[in-house]
Design brief:
By secondary structure, the chain is mainly beta. The chain is built from two helices and 45 strands. Among the domains are: 118 residues, no CATH class; 154 residues, Jelly Rolls. The protein has a 21-stranded parallel sheet that branches. Helix 2 links the parallel strand 1 and strand 2. The relative contact order is 0.06. It comes from Paraburkholderia fynbosensis.
Length: 560
């Protein structure tokens, strides 16, 4: 046992207000009416000269386990106090939720010599102990308690490890014992395939506080499939408070049903996906509140391969989606939520640092069932959260069928004239053009709708402007900010653009006009504040200096 003691036996007695009788580990006696703890060192084998501490840990754990099995009661069991130091462990340590491993100073559980495919520490309750009138009384406090000094769990190495640092849950459903109320405090896990694996058989009401799961290859938290992909009596209120999940391909990977996770005041730093629902995930909720999420190579929520009765809820949090490993990509708005799981967000601040390459790329995929989006805030660069926020009809030119001439479009009029009031819309002659069908777009493994575009043949002279206006007004509210953006390509010259918002009061009474113009060779996003008394608006986009064949894929207005 390689350690340096920071607390003698007498200090431990003073701290805990108890008396321990210490002999050789095989001679230890425990009077549960007086003793609140046992020193791990009391279970060290004498005279072996070995530096492997695995036997010491397992003997101490089995000693407490035998007390519970003999008395058929998990109440009043002594805790195992681990003096500060480094402990070399070469085999899996098997424990139970009612056996308490507590630090007295900083403790390093060094599994770096563990065979690559082995797990570090398993917490199972595969016993027939009765629930008693107190209902699993020994489970409630942390089974890994680093409040006396952090418990660090070091694995065989991030790249080579094939096991998980901590495994919680039973392997069969027939045991009356459950991994319930099992928790960890002040634990740091590094250097494994994954930090925490949950086997969803009689596993629920877990809680982790002030812990770090970082630099583990595949996941920080992994919920394995249960029997036939189904969980058994598992998943209720899996809570994490003041924890950090960093440096894994997936921070949370759920591949089982009936999982309800709650994260409060947690950080998710530099992961591939943050929340990933696997194929066996069918229903459940992940709720994140007061969290900081930074560095995402993949998706904030990846539900592209799972069932449709899942939910992710994001509240009062900050998302700064700069890339983790892909240093060639800038932190610009891009799609972050995809798949069939429901999504809602409120009070979220999105921190983007670089302009969007595709201005109308949404943060939330078109296929995502959005429950609600409220109080979105954007730093530096505004983005279109979701196409459900678009307020002008037919922004993607999908209503009219392919081949419809530009002069016959239901919701658009083409001209160079200013938009008329809603009560008397103008209908000037339009240039040659029609709706054309495009190829389907596939992104993040999800096929989008088959898009269409408005294709126009512009004049050869670059000094002839072209305007496209919304034919029908769209509703606005005084004081809100409206945004407009256009996605277009041309085979000829690219010029400048001007966006004009004409606001109207009720009954079509014109109010103010707001304009924003781009420099040459840019397709900008424009914004305007809706004036007092306005109830409707019309958008006009004017293309100046453009020639050749112009294809407009999307022209959208949304509330910021």
């Amino acid at each position: 046992m390689k350690r340096r003691s920071v607390m003698g036996l007498s200090a431990g007695v003073a701290m805990l207000g108890a008396t321990a009788v210490s002999r050789g580990w095989g001679e230890s006696t425990v009077d549960r009416s007086q003793n609140g703890f046992l020193w791990l060192s009391d279970f060290a084998a004498k005279g072996t000269g070995t530096s492997d501490d695995t036997g010491t840990f397992q003997r101490a754990i089995d000693y407490v386990r035998d007390i519970a099995l003999r008395t058929r009661d998990t109440s009043c069991l002594p805790s195992l106090l681990i003096p500060a130091g480094r402990y070399v462990l070469t085999r899996t340590i098997d424990t139970a939720p009612w056996i308490k491993l507590c630090s007295a100073g900083g403790v390093l559980l060094d599994f770096s010599q563990l065979p690559a495919g082995w797990n570090g520490l398993t917490c199972r309750n595969e016993t027939t102990l009765p629930a008693t009138s107190l209902r699993f009384p020994g489970d409630r406090s942390p089974f890994l308690d680093g409040t006396g000094g952090t418990i660090s769990i070091l694995g065989p190495g991030r790249e080579k490890a094939e096991g998980w640092a901590i495994v919680m849950g039973n392997r069969q459903a027939g045991f009356s014992g459950a991994v319930r109320d099992a928790s960890g405090h002040n634990v740091v896990v590094t250097g494994w395939r994954g930090a925490l694996r949950i086997d969803p058989i009689n596993t629920y009401l877990t809680a982790w506080f002030s812990s770090r799961f970082e630099q583990n290859r595949e996941n920080s938290i992994y919920v394995a499939p249960g029997g036939a992909g189904r969980s058994v009596n598992s998943g209720e209120r899996m809570s994490f408070v003041d924890c950090t999940f960093a440096g894994s391909e997936r921070a949370l990977e759920i591949d089982s049903d009936s999982m309800d996770f709650v994260f409060d005041a947690c950080s998710f730093d530099f992961n591939g996906d943050v929340v990933h629902f696997g194929r066996e995930a069918r229903y459940g909720t992940v709720a994140l509140s007061h969290c900081h999420i930074e560095g995402i190579d993949g998706l904030l929520v990846n539900a592209t391969a799972c069932g449709d009765r899942l939910r992710t809820v994001l509240r009062d949090s900050i998302v700064l989606p700069r890339h983790w490993k892909r240093k060639d990509l800038v932190n610009a708005p891009r799609q972050l939520i995809a798949g069939g799981a429901k999504f809602s967000a409120s009070g979220v601040e999105w921190r983007f640092e670089a302009p969007q390459r595709g201005t109308l790329t949404t943060l939330i995929g078109d296929e995502v069932p959005v429950e609600s989006l409220h109080n979105m805030s954007f730093q530096k660069v505004r983005a279109l959260p979701w196409r459900g926020h678009v307020v002008n009809p037919d922004s993607v030119f999908a209503l009219d069928s392919a081949g419809t001439p530009v002069g016959k479009l239901t919701h658009w009029s083409a001209s160079s004239a200013a938009p008329a009031a809603p009560a008397a819309p103008a209908a000037p002659a339009a240039p040659a053009g029609e709706i054309v069908a495009m190829n389907a777009v596939v992104g993040n493994g999800v096929a989008a709708r088959s898009p269409q575009a408005l294709r126009l043949m512009l004049a050869d002279r670059s000094d002839v402007p072209f305007s496209l206006s919304t034919r029908t007004p769209f509703p606005v509210r005084p004081g809100e900010t409206v945004m407009a953006a256009c996605s277009a390509v041309t085979t000829g010259t690219i010029g400048s653009m001007t966006f004009s918002f004409q606001f109207y009061a009720a009954a079509g009474v014109p109010l103010s006009l707001s304009e924003a113009q781009s420099v040459t060779n840019e397709l900008p996003a424009a914004q305007a504040t809706v004036p007092s008394g306005a109830a409707q608006a019309i958008l006009k986009a004017t293309f100046t200096g453009w020639t050749g064949k112009l294809e407009i894929n999307e022209l959208a207005v949304w509330r910021s």
